[in-house]
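To assess whether the prediction recovers the assembly geometry, we first specified each molecular entity separately, as shown.
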Amino acid sequence: MSINVNPVQTGQPLFYVVDEHDHAEGGSTMLGFWIYLMSDCLIFAILFATYGVLGGNYAAGPAPKDLFDLSLVAVNTSMLLMSSITYGFAMLSMQRSRIAATQFWLAITGLFGLAFVGIELSEFRHMIHEGATPQRSAFLSSFFTLVGTHGLHVSFGLVWLVTLMTQVWRFGLIEANKRRLMCLSMFWHFLDVVWIGVFTFVYLLGMLR
Amino acid sequence: MSAEIHSGHTAHDGRGDMAHGDMGHGEITLSGYLTGFVLSVFLTAVPFYLVMSGALGDKQVTALVVMAFAAVQIVVHMIYFLHMNTTSEGGWTMMALIFTIVMVAIAMTGSLWVMHHLNVNMMPAHQMGTMQ
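The predicted structure of the complete assembly is given in tokenized form:
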């Protein structure tokens, strides 16, 4: 940490740190991952802004009122909310180094996540069957882009979850796996925060329009 | 050699060590998660009820109330699920968050404002005729 000024040996003072600053392994992972999440937040912000601009351009096609089923969205929202709390239980089990309990809660989280993606896909399929495809109007283009991007994030989160369950199964709750689970925890809760924006601005305000 | 460096590091860099070891997470507790969960169930259920039943009558008021609930719920999630606080990682997570909020605010208000004016000023010709 100290700056080596050693004019005796070389005759030239050194004005830089000779010893590499010691970083604990993964010490900066959390901050780095948080900054990634913030950049992801910017992506969603732009998609929200796009939806905000184009959301009223129906091109004489279906409007939110004709398409959305709020009770289905409420079920979907509760799926994501339940998966958030079960992931919290997984983190608590992880803190106490209980592998079986951690795996159990991760599996439950995965099932809730899967239910969420399943319900969303069936909603999309239903809309497309009714002719409300992304090509139909600017409203639908921006709707599918925004909600689809969120769904894609959840799907990748599920892939990540299965990967981490395999990791924990093979190597146990080692320091690296704990760090990875914490990253996924942030990712998962972040997606829940984005979903608050989606169900409020797209679904609830869409029904009020 | 490496042990020497390591012990030297921990000895006089206690503050840095704390920031590293904190992992960006505050205290993870069961009561914290449960509080967050109960609050977010409430903050989700009320807007859905208001919109589905139309209890408030006026759409404008309902929209404002729903948006207020969303804003509160986002803060609840930030605190209880993402464990945000002002001190984790030496305050850098908060700095990154503030920067992002500023960027998001500029992008959102800018887009909506500019595009709204475009929409108003670029009215199709037949509507322009009725206005004059």
